[in-house]
Automatic annotation (TrEMBL):
Signal peptide range: none
GO biological process: siderophore transport
Molecular function as annotated in GO: siderophore uptake transmembrane transporter activity; signaling receptor activity
Domain of life: Bacteria
Record flagged with keyword Nucleotide-binding: no
Coiled-coil positions: none
SUPFAM superfamilies in the cross-refs: Porins
Localization per record: Cell outer membrane
Protein name (record): TonB-dependent receptor
Primary site of residence: membrane
Amino acid sequence: MPDVEPHIMIKLTVATVASLAAFGAPLHAQETSRIADTSTLSAIKVTGSRYHFSASITALDSSSATRTATPLIEVPQSVQVLPRALIEAQDARSLSDALVNVSGLTPAQPQESLFVSPIVRGFPAEIYLDGLPMYGMNASNSPASLVGIKRIEVLKGPTSTLYGGGLGSPLGGLINIESEQPEGAAGGYAAIRSGSYETLNPYFDLTGPLTSTTNARIAGEYQRNGSWIDKVKGERWSVQPSLSFQLAPKTVLQVQGLFNHSSQLEYSGLPAAQALGGELDRYAFPGAPIGQPRTKRDSQIATVTLRHEFSNSLRLAATGRYYHSRIPEYGSFVYPEYYPPNPATPTIYPILPLNLLTTTSESTFDANLLAKVDMLGGYHEILTGISYDHTNFASGLGFAGVPAGTIDLADPDYNLHFGVPAPASATQTNRYQTAAAYLQDQATYGRLHLTGSLRYTQLHLREKEQGNNVTYHRVSPRIGATFDLAPGVAAYAAYATGFRAPFAFIGLQTPEPETSRNIEGGLKLELADIGLSGTIAAFRQTRNNVVTPDPNNPLYSIQSGQQRARGFETDLVWEPTAAFSLLLNYAYTRAEVTKDNAIPVGDKLPRVPRHSGRIAARYRVLSGPAQGLSFGAGVTAYSGRELTLPNTVSVPGYAVIDAQASYSFDRYTITLSGVNLANRHAYAPYQYLSFPVVMPIQPRSVYLTLKVEI
């Protein structure tokens, strides 16, 4: 598309607006909403950008931060958007691959996603799909595939005014994954990827009309692979069908399905101190692989969405979803705290088998009404809505406590049998029910943009084994403002809160919800003339009512802990032309314990680096003999990270290099991508139970993809 001047004052008619919309000219939501049903309209500002092209990695708006289509420069919150073009350009195959492009975010690796949540600004975040929760105690609900994903939006800080379900609302942030929608024009692609560790990965995404009022889409992926870790092999598949029905000119009904499956021999990590000291085989499997069943994750999601526009200034959206997952987990691990090695043979460890079956079902619903009005001297977008969530969670742990034998992790000989899984000896049966109502007003007064929202939540928590049966009532506020300092530059400030019920709390008093509070401010950039956009932010976030041991009753806990994260972060994208893009992010995060009965004050929060960042560049040849060629490279770096609380062992920092090269001709694209090109031998934090363990990062790996447009 040719360059578009960034700011033009013109006279529009209704026909002109329709023509611009069909051509794809970007109009801000607040500007298009002002269009009246008259033949001639008053002068308005049309904001364009010279970097709006199909392969652009720049995102200028968000639908997750406010549940409305809002320019990012007007959102008083640090929000990062990863569009499909960026995911494809970097050959990202998992959510953790994509999330390295966001500052201050520590993703859960696919191998450890059963045990931990992603971390944003030091605190746990949750993963949502199309604005609705999937029970988010950890990252086990991460999508098995990024095929069929339109974009990923990361909201930093608590988000309790617009989102919640299950145990409550996210304390640290929200990662919302937006699905591709069925389209009226036939299209799509099929591809196959292969490479290191016997990876075989076919995938596809197809869309088109079925009738004049019905469109369909289906995306799917299959992957079989080995691993750089001994004995570990994996398999996964995902299928995502969807249909959209044009029930009336302004009414659309959409039905979506998502079926995920993954299986892998569960990896439990290496004892950190010895691994970091070079005493162990870095790729050893610390377990009993003979007869150990694979850990499987199966989930099914059905979503129905109805959208109706009463007029240009009034629309209704209602979405309901059912989510079910089943995870039979089988692990074998070392646990030196209770089963230490013989001091005479310090690398020979007893191996303990474990099995855990977890099932989750969640029914959730959200309906909201958006009204756009001029009143009180300004322009307002008022959103009011209700939500409901009912979640059942059950788990049964089988642990005999008898070692299956021993293994020398310095020179492993894999001759241990897993044995017969132990019957469940510890169970967890929980039910969570949430009902909420919320109200949000986005007001514009010239250069000032105000956002305020309030949510009332009733959360009923029932945990059978702990004897917890309590109902919480919570009012969650959020307020923020952005001010346009100059065209494309805005300052912002915001305050928000979050709350979440404690999981499996055992104490002598009724459990209180954990709460978080976030204050942030900074600059927003949308400099169309030079192609620079992004956010520069400073923040201070606290987490209260953290569960700590009861000093007077060793078998119980109390909620007296407090944690705090402070820091600075920047996320920038520079696309001066359609041929070149540069992504840069950096975060300084000081996350620490500020109050506790057992953990020293000042201890650093696990897995959170003090310094982290990424720089990634890409160049595309747009003309000449090499037209269709593109290549890019990136560097991701972390400083040292602690593994546990209290702090005992830390993982040194490291940096890894990735690169990609593609060539497109006719309907075909060939892509070559590489991971850890310098073959850096480093360890990443890993979580398995509470003992400090680590995982070796992926060695140098190369993949080749052939893709054909259909």
